[in-house]
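User: quick one - fold this with zinc ion bound?
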Amino acid sequence: MKQYKYELMKGSRRYICPKCHKKEFKVYVKTGTNIVVDETKYGRCNRQNSCGYFRYPDTNEDWTPPQFVYTPPKPLDYVSKDVVEATFNQYKSNVFFMYLVKLFGIEKAYQLQEAYNIGTAKGGGTIFWQQDREQNIRTA
Ligand SMILES: [Zn+2]
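Assistant: Sure. Structure tokens for the protein plus zinc ion:
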């Protein structure tokens, strides 16, 4: 016969039931002792029909720490270099770039283009690529 680690306390002693709060709670003790496991949790309420509280200690006693599954941080989405470089063209149709050329001259305009990753969007719009410290393009 299986030897249980815990048994209901022998005798007529009753504790306060954690559920119905009536003094009808028989608690679990360590088998062969009078050591109460936890009178606020583990035991059986005598009011089986109206309360029904019943909890065996083992459910929590053999507690094992939760397993933390390591999930590597999601890599940042970088815009591929090809996509970025594909926009570094058609500057003649880029209104903003032509504006820079007008202001600073073609050479300076290209320097600014390089410094600020200015690209040309379809239809002559301007793209400002956001570059991080590792020179990766994050977004525009
Ligand atoms: Zn109860």
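One thing worth noting: The pocket of zinc ion is lined by residues 17, 19-20, 22, 24, 45, 47, 51, 53 (CB under 6 Å).
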